[in-house]
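Retro notes, item 3 of 5
We never archived the inputs for the zinc ion complex last cycle. Fixing that now. Sequence and ligand:
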Amino acid sequence: MINRERLTNTFCELVSIDSPSGEEEEVSKYIEAKLTKLGFILLKDDYGNLIAKTKSNNNNLILSAHMDTVEPGRGIIPVVEKDIIKSKTDTILGGDCKAGLTGILEALDSLNEEHYEFKNLVLIFTREEELALQGARNLDFSKFEGSNAIIFDGEGPPSTITSSSPTYISFDIEIIGRAAHAGAEPEKGLSAIILASKLINKLPQGRLDNETTFNIGKIEGGSVRNAVPANVYVQGEFRTSSLETLDNLSETLSITVREIKDEFPDSKINLKTELLFENYKLKDNDPCLKIVTNAIEKLGLKPNLKPSGGGTDGNVFIKKDIKSVVVGMGVTGMHTINETVSIPDLVDSSSLCQELILSNC
Ligand SMILES: [Zn+2]
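Structure as it came back at the time:
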């Protein structure tokens, strides 16, 4: 039986351990200690992702969640108010993805209590998911086998299934103008800030259509008040599920940079784009989707498929030919200081995990 009190305690313990991206060591140790007691074989790949396996390895089911959180995520103090857990201070709660970790760990504790013998199970706990899936992208897939993965990293109740996720492109633009004294000889300068503003003005912004977004997220530049600024750095991203839109936006970006260069021949503008993860759309007959919807229905819940504008480790797993489904873990307000976890949803999430383990044998 899923034990609500034990589950709440595990969750509060996990969020009390700081694990911003890149600093997952302590959370990993916490999970390792629990899994060792439950008899799992533990491995770490070169990147520090944690992999746990059962002794028997046949037609494995993969369960996964990530160990890192976003900022502000240090010194989190969880507060339980009836059915809701929130952060006491101005930090995130860390439900993303500690709720996912909790759901899996409680399902294992519950089954262990009933003397269930774990078999044909692989658990993957990744690092740096919040850094554009860096951990999963560096995961050593040769260390485990399994054709279906359930990833506990979605928003909302566990009946919420992520039906699609976009391709994600990051871009960095370095704009180099020419410095000059702002009062004595401004005409000798070429303001990189002016160039940046002209460039940004020509670029699209926000939601472009129902499957595409574009964002300039960070600008850094200039050095002092009284100098024409010589350097500006711009960071942005775009996401889309359409290959055609992806090509068009990449081209728009290059053309815009070229136009600004042509207008200001003395400037230097360096554009770097990087594809960080690729899109997917679950098919109705996806075998892994079938496994998940069956388990959700068995719990008396109604599967609710929803597209997502974000990426998860599922994007990487799917490209590695592992059928993957991302489910909700009882969290709302992810990546904000208003993040909360619903304990009944967390209980359901753990029950779903338990059902998935049982249905795989
Ligand atoms: Zn997450």
